[in-house]
Queue: 4 jobs
Job 1
Amino acid sequence: MTQKLPVRAIIGPTASGKTALACEAYARGGIEIISMDSALI
């Protein structure tokens, strides 16, 4: 059986602090960051 891991998304308008929040979460450890941007799709 495959274990399902939780997925969390940080969403919000431009210049709302999403990157800073993601960097802080990464620094605390235990997460992987995958960046999605509509301008890059």
Job 2
Amino acid sequence: MKKGLSALLAACIGLSGAMGLAACRESEPIGDPGNVLVVYFSATGNTEQVANYIAEATGGDILELVPVEPYTADDLRWTDDNSRVVQEHENEELQNSVELVTVTPDGWENYDTVFLGYPIWWGIAAWPVNGFVTGNDFSGKTVIPFCTSSSSGIGESGDLLTDMAGTGEWLSGHRFRSSASQSDVVGWLETLGNFSGGDMGNAGGTVTPDPGDTDEEQPDGGYMPPPETGDGPAENAPTADIAVPTPDVRQTILLWNEGNIPAYNESYQAASADGLGFIPYIESFPAQGEVKGAVLICPGGAFQFRSTVSEGYNVAEELSARGYQCFVVSYRLRPYSQEVSALDLARAVRYVRANAEAYGINENDIAVVGFSAGGILCGELLLHSDGYQLPTESDPDYVPDSLDYVSAEASAIGHIYSFYGRLSVSDNNVETLRAGNLPPTFYAYGTRDPFYRQFIQNADAVREAGVEVEEHVFENVGHGFGAGNASCDWIPSFDTFLTNIFEEN
């Protein structure tokens, strides 16, 4: 068992802890935390990453709460009234019946400080943690909740868990954004005290994997430089300080460095759904089996929000199972323009291409697919950029790095209930579409979609512009079907579409 945090939370274990009664108070420094345990439940990998950062920094042991019946992608479809997670949300008895593989870890009585992590579901702690909280005696222990959420705060989740536990000294906890970096986590831990149990040497970004048996020094920041372009500015550009890819495990990768984000506007950021502190990022889903190529996935949401689960994670899981390295893109939202959002998508494509060898793909085998506004974003990138435009065209004060000189071109695009154009308005100008030198384009949409006619017109115009077009129309299907179902099973066709294109590259 490992010791962590040499001086973490002074004077926190008071009478309530000694008497075995639960109490919840604001986080404040306490004394020696003793033996540390990091416990977490993670549905999509975000909470798991934060938990690993905490365990690394504190030297604590780690326990993942795994349901006996794990949650599948279909289970987590929160927009489907018949999905498991929705049914459980509406039935407290179902919430409390989620059985865990392990409730009490070996040596439980020897732990002094417990970090408890979970995603936020409908404003409360994801209920798979309930079995752990009710199944253990926290007397004499300090419990520190943490959660991950793209928008919701920690709310009353900690207070509810405190009441549920009935014992222990519970601190108020902390919420991390879904794209939390290691430095975010370490920064929070530092507000609780000093460290001695873990490794603080890699606090600047994502966890750097062991390079293995190699004497080659890793570039600063972990980014592998792109191929030489022969362009003087590219050769002199600073190396991009961005995460090393971990192709075999899920990973959250910040696309820009704080303080050097092109077209950043503080008032816009504060007004957006993401709020201040948001940095555009991608989440990777490793390919299973033989790797065919890479797909960057842009969820929709009218540029007001991102439907990350139904139009991001669910799609990534389906495509990764078919052999694609998948990346869900969290781009900037309104009041930023779609042109600015396209900078984030371009950066994501460049990152994947620059690390093509690590991901086991041909650098040309990269596609983008978007849903509704996410498809419009993909079209914005490919229709109005030649793949080599620098972010300085949008922001002269931005300082380009080596990654900005990598091509942002894609070999294929998927418009899932979407089109080339702007929000709610398709661009059907054949000459404009022809001038865009567009890649093969895949359409999937339903006859009951309010934009049904525009999809037809756009596909016809793109076809007339000389672009290869594949079109799938689903009868009596509306907008927002995400990864599809029996009545609109578009993914197998998209797989075949991409396979044929990539095989020709």
Job 3
Amino acid sequence: MKSILQSQVSSNSILTLFRKVRPLFLFGCLNLFILFIPTKSNAQGQFGVSFQVFYDNLSAYGSWVNNSNYGYVWAPSVSRGFMPYATNGYWILTDYGWSWYSYYSWGWAPFHYGRWFYDPFYGWVWVPGNEWAPAWVTWRWSDGYYGWAPIAPGISITFANSYNYHQYIPNQHWRFVRQKDFGIRNIHQNYVGADRYLSLINKSSPIQNFREDRTRNTTYNTGPAKLEAENKSGRKFSPIPIREVNQPSQQLKNNRLEIFRPEVKKVTDGVAPAPSKINTWRGQQQPVKEVPKIEKQEIQQPVKEQPIKQVPIRQQPVKQVPKIEKPEVQQPVKEQPVNQIPIRQQPVKQVPKIEKQEIRQPVKEVPVRQEPIMPPPKIERPEIHQPIRQAPKTQQPNLQRPIRQEPKRVVPIRKEKEH
């Protein structure tokens, strides 16, 4: 009995102890759960940042210029021959797709935000943007090759990776490598010669592996598929996770990409963002103006207007054809004057009868008809003249009688001879 009582006392003490410790236990578990939840960086906080983060952090590595078409653009201070997504960097596979990792300290911004265009005076110039992506390039593949080129400002991601956009990109703005060399660090040493770009572009097709980032309302192209790249290159690619940091920078550390990628807003309340030092644009305006015209050709000459116009055009002529054929039945009207012509020729043989009728037709003129209202009997008189035609028949024998009288005159002439 004592043992039973002791066991009951011990169990009751444990229950009372657990009830006292339970709140502390739950609080400790909650803290551990919060520690392991990934949090966003302060720079990417609820309010985001503006273009001022670009103006302030890139001024030391180039010059900001006021362009009439795109506003404030950035010309980097780089060596001759620089090209975005081709110089001083290489491609790495991340959780977001193929990302361009640059050795430049400022590479966190121009290769993941905005667009690039080429100017003969400044070289490659960057236009800031508010959407983040692993890279803003157009991807293509050919038999045994991968190729890419920077997307120009104002071009949508769908049109940039369409079948026709490559026609608007100069050949020297492309970079091609063999598929077995794709993904290596010294990729710049394996670019195909520029003399082969034209043939590779004409034989290539677009890579359209689009991905939508719903948290930021952004759509981008991830580049070549992982399995295809592994099969073509003969190497395995493990996607590297991306970790966001609070300061403008990027680096590969502990097999992950640490990069500054805040949510950028175009419009902010208060003072408009602007660079501290702004230079006047000295480059050419023509190549910059031609770029936005590309979208107008692709959007306005689309196929949408053709079916709308073709449908009525095909229906209208079908209805008009029978209407046009019916008036053509009037062609026999033309045959009537043709029939009248032989009618005129036939009476020509009956010269006296037809000519008199033709002469009487002009008599039907207004003055002739008005005067002889009384002469319907006069019309009967020409019928009386018909026997007049017989009169010359009686005159013909009269002409022969004087012929008989002539020999009578000859008789006296003969008598004179007798004397």
Job 4
Amino acid sequence: MRILTLIALIFVLFTANAYASDDVFVVQDIKAEATAKSAVAAREIAFNKALSRSFKLLTTRLVSKDQQDTISIPTSDEIAGMVLDFEITSEKSSRTSYRATYTIRYNKQDIRNYFGQQQVTYTDISGQSLLVIPFLQMGNQTILWNAQNPFLSGWQESLNQKNALTKIVVPINDLQDMIDIKDNEALTYKKENIARMISRYHAKEAVILIASPSNGIENLQTSPLNIYIYKTHNSYPEYIETLEIRPSSRADIVSKSIKETKRFLQDEWKRQYSTTPSEGLKTYNVVVRFPTIDQWVKTKTVLEQNIGKESIALKSLRTKEATLQINFAGNINSLDLSLRRAGYALRPVGAGYFEIYAAN
């Protein structure tokens, strides 16, 4: 099928508000240009380029780095068959050239099927932020809020990539932040304080970063730098990884460390919430407790909208409790995160069952 036929079939110019800002299957700000014998021919060539670039960006977003090279990029016609719709946000043309910026929305089931054929793991869970708390180690001490910490200001000033899977947020250094975690509490924080910060910043979870210059802060730009990464979801800090950042004449080491740490955190998110296509659907037994029938109807509607009506089977219904069987293509963390986007969450209740509850 020719690309111009696709353009004729799809209603292209719709409002940008049609896109959800956290839709992982929407790729924005794709620029492409081409020259040809006519503007029409140049337009088709440019659109082919936009399709290829957007698909590569989508793959980078959803698939972990170690598997990206194993995916064969489909042809423009094959990619076009997975496009749900698109928008041309700006364009300019002459008799022999065409230039445009596109927003392309993919059909999520077509993309899932394609990844399944390629036998790669992927994650399509987003809509949650990751709170990053960047400390600086100076000798035997750590500092966070002190003006001597260039990593806090560097993270605060860094921008989220438009097509990144996970949004990263950084504390703003207000009074409540300084009460919740102090300079010397990088690894001795109070769990309830971290939970309060996660809630305040509307994040899914938090990570502690400790930047440790190998030769002192005064030689920061000329010596290797270690970034120690810890998760905080347990009652104690859980060590994840150490990133070694080498100095470079082309980049400030603080900026370079932020860029490389972001790349690692995005990949870690993909690994944590990845789905293996070959595993197929998994079945989860869940309980929903409700004070009134109206609340049950509301909860059931939200679940059907976010998981799919066909994926939910009602096993039993009592006065204030329902038992469901949910078929879901992903692990329990992915299901929990999908529910959290709708204001609900999961917790184990024993005997292989989980409870769905309102996440306040």
